Amino acid sequence: MREIKYEDIVKSIKDCIIFSGANLPKDALEKMNEAYENEKSPVAKEVLKQLIKNADIASSEEKPLCQDTGLAVFFVKVGEDVKVIGGTLKAAINEGTEKGYIDGYLRASTCEWDTRANLKDTLGYNLPAFIHFDLVKGDELTIEYAAKGGGSENVSRATVMPPAAGRKGVIDYVKKIVSNAGPNPCPPLTVGVGIGGTFEKAVISSKHALFRKLGSVNEDPTLKEMEEELVEELNKLGIGAMGMGGTQTVFGVHIEKNPCHIASLPVSVNVQCHSSRHAVIKL
Amino acid sequence: MSKIYNLTTPLSKNDVVQLKAGDIVYLSGIIYTARDAAHKKLIDLMDAKEDLPFDVSGSVIYFVGPTPPKPGDPIGSAGPTTSYRMDSYSPRLINEKGLRGMIGKGKRNKEVTDACTKSKAIYFGATGGAGALLARQIKSSKVIAYPELGPEAIRKLEVIDFPLTVINDTYDQDLYKIGRDKYEVK
Fold first, then answer.
1. Min CA distance, A245 vs chain B (Å)?
2. The domain boundary residue, chosen from A113, A148, A183
């Protein structure tokens, strides 16, 4: 058994959240610069220029990149030989989240669904953290983190298609969602797609796909080809940065697949804005 | 070809009828923040025929819920939120109270753009996700109503050369549509 201290997890999460709030990750910044170089529309180019400058100001002033500092989402791989000492792993992640959001001057964005009352003084500052646990072999603890904003979450959708819809059905569905979303989710976007699985597995996979490094290549040749086709098709929509018209609508499309029921073809599309704040912690 | 304007609030009809979708405006003066929760309260006051917490006539509302300021800063990160959530409230503020401008991001519905045309108001876009850059143009911030709403409280902001793009003008033009038509490959 490898022991990991509760306080060490809290501190790692807190530091990661504070840093991520003000520093656009390298992969996202590279994609932003690439979009700026490739953009044909002068209006969209100006938007991208502002976003690159914004990343610079946020980093140097240690100020949040965006006022929507998101809900805190985690995918956690827990090695079977890991033992957390001094408290539960879940409590440590939540405590680290609250401390990070408070000390980083990030926004408390969780509320009650009906009264819309902010939960900062009742449940905790920007709590709960949204955590997906997975048990794996070994003695490592891997925590993937992303701050997920509301604007891009609001345009995300899921469905269960008849199996006959097939590849074309999936492609058309993704195109329809990005097209209808237009300027609202703050393009250029990362588009996470979950295909197959049960209904909820498709949704969780589409979320997890957003945590993948931008610019990385899918190891599955079929999915790789679909991703490339979708990037091309989505950029043809003409939406451009912040929807003002342009050639650079997406940074990338990331697809994850799962085996599914013989009767079903679940498909989920989770959209991420240009401010793709994500990080990985290994303990 | 888009033009560049420097305007100061409050805005007159003459200020806004010259603007066309795609124009750039650097806005200075006082503007007010409100998101859905605050809009609902404003409309409730109108229904009760009570005074609103600020003079809406000629004013500009910024759809924003900023992050908490660091010590010494007037405001935290302060970029626009998605505007459609205010669609059910904006037309009454425009038609009945003379609201002259809104700042946000994303599409508005027909009721809003019709109100812009009829009562002469502008829907401006600010760059979403540029909250650190936009905060630099905000010189002061004061909560003037609904402090219990936290980030959604109504704030009075003093801005200087706040960078905006005209999305919907008073001639029923929409930059999102114009821009996309130009670059969509069919």
1. 4
2. A148
